[in-house]
Task: inverse folding
């Protein structure tokens, strides 16, 4: 049955006539189709924009540039500060890192913003629940810093880097978004019960920042519970802030609640630059067939217009899109669900024809311009009054038993400033023997602390080098070390499972 339950209403009034210059990155696959559709709608809404079209993605990779981002693209974004980007393909088997990630990092777009709102005319198991939330994801740190090493031929490591500065910025941005959209609560979702130093830093910083926003309720929940609650009771959330990888997963989950990635917009926000993009893929299998759904790109452009202060035009386009989707007259194939199907161009023309109408089912939200946190002029945020090295973790590649390795390390430590405290394997203490049944791999953490006979002596780099030389002389291969610091008398490291 075709749904036709909307009532068109006159929209408010005159369109601003400020001219903007914006970088356009059409992208790969269906990117050029959905980008041109969006540009057509903006033009029809009466907003004067000069588009600078540049390349990134597949063609740039194929031209031999490992970043996937052309020089002209970088120059244009630096000049214009704002970009609208189609999906980019990262070819498999050649090229370097994702061009999407490159752009986010090069312009320090530290906040990824994913609004999730029930849209009239798009049916899901959650329709009618009134879902209306925003996921605010830290965008440049965490495991996605992409710092990986093969520690041994069998064990890979990815560094999870979380900084106080990064946590402050994303926390402030989350509260500023809540304030700008007149929302009453912000949740921070972490795994601070397990990763107490990294995810714990996010939780603690969020709680500190929340004190500057007393009118907004600040809440914490664990990220796994957050996923659970999003399925059980998504209506409770207004803003969810989280770390990079958690945010990547949760934002896709939330998009699924309201219709999927084909309608999901996003913004990458930095101190000076902002990049707006549809989050779905390039879908090369349907490129050029006039069947791509431009909804996600249109909604991303609406976010861009609000960033530019063009609130009236943004609302006008958003409402025209909603009216089109609830009209029952035609849908892109991926959301048609048995209803009439229209192509990309026809759907775009329908949205244009509905400019000036308002949805009776989805009223416009009130938006203010978001205040983006300012860039700190210093690299160090927390300066401890005291700091002390109380030991070291030495990571060893070794094919054998913990007992044999323990004997070799204790022999190497003889005559040095250090004593072996314990050995762990994948985070569980295996030496001294404590009855655990660990299936060990060839990657061992040997925790060395100051020999009790030398109480009061400071551990310095010379003593560390002496220990490492003795370990090497015993035929052991070490791959890296971590100093065990105390800042202001508190341990700046965690214990292994089973360690006293």
Result:
């Amino acid at each position: 049955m075709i749904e036709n339950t909307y009532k068109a209403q006159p929209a408010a009034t005159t369109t601003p006539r400020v001219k903007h210059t914006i970088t356009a990155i059409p992208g790969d696959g269906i990117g050029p189709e959905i980008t041109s559709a969006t540009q057509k709608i903006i033009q029809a809404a009466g907003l004067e924009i000069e588009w600078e079209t540049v390349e990134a993605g597949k063609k740039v990779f194929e031209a031999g540039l490992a970043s996937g981002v052309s020089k002209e693209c970088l120059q244009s974004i630096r000049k214009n500060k704002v970009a609208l980007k189609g999906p980019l393909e990262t070819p498999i088997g050649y090229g370097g890192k994702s061009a999407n990630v490159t752009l986010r990092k090069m312009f320090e777009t530290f906040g990824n913003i994913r609004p999730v709102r029930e849209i009239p005319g798009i049916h899901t198991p959650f329709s009618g629940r009134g879902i209306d939330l925003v996921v605010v994801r830290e965008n440049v740190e965490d495991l996605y810093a992409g710092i990986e090493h093969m520690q041994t031929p069998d064990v890979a490591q990815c560094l999870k880097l979380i900084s106080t500065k990064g946590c402050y910025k994303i926390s402030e941005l989350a509260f500023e978004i809540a304030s700008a959209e007149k929302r009453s609560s912000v949740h921070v979702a972490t795994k601070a019960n397990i990763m107490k130093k990294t995810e714990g830093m996010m939780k603690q910083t969020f709680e500190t920042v929340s004190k500057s926003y007393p009118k907004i309720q600040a809440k914490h929940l664990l990220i796994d519970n957050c996923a659970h609650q999003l399925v059980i009771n998504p209506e409770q959330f207004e803003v969810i802030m989280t770390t990079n990888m958690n945010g990547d997963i949760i934002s896709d989950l939330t998009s699924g609640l309201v219709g999927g990635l084909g309608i999901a917009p996003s913004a990458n926000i930095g101190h000076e630059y902002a990049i707006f993009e549809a989050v779905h893929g390039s879908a090369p299998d349907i490129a050029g067939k006039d069947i791509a759904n431009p909804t996600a790109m249109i909604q991303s452009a609406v976010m861009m217009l609000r960033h530019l202060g063009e609130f009236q035009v943004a609302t006008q386009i958003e409402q025209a899109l909603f009216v089109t989707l609830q009209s029952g007259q035609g849908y892109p194939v991926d959301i048609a669900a048995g209803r009439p199907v229209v192509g990309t161009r026809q759907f775009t023309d329908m949205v244009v024809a509905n400019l000036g109408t308002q949805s009776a089912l989805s009223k416009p939200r009130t938006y203010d311009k978001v205040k983006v946190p300012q860039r700190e002029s210093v690299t160090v945020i927390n300066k401890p009054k005291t700091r002390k090295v109380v030991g070291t973790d030495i990571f060893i590649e070794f094919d054998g038993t913990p007992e044999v390795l323990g004997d070799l390390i204790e022999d190497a430590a003889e005559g040095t400033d250090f004593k072996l405290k314990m050995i762990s394997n994948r985070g569980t203490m295996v030496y001294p023997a404590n009855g655990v049944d660990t299936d060990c791999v060839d990657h061992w953490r040997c925790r060395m602390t100051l020999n009790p006979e030398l109480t009061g002596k400071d551990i310095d780099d010379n003593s560390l080098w002496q220990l490492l030389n003795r370990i090497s002389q015993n035929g052991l291969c070490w791959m890296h070390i971590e100093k065990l610091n105390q800042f202001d008398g508190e341990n700046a490291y965690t214990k292994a499972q089973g360690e006293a």
About this structure: Residues 1-16 have pLDDT under 50 and may be disordered. The two ends are 66 Å apart (CA to CA). Residues 320 and 353 are 8 Å apart (CA to CA).
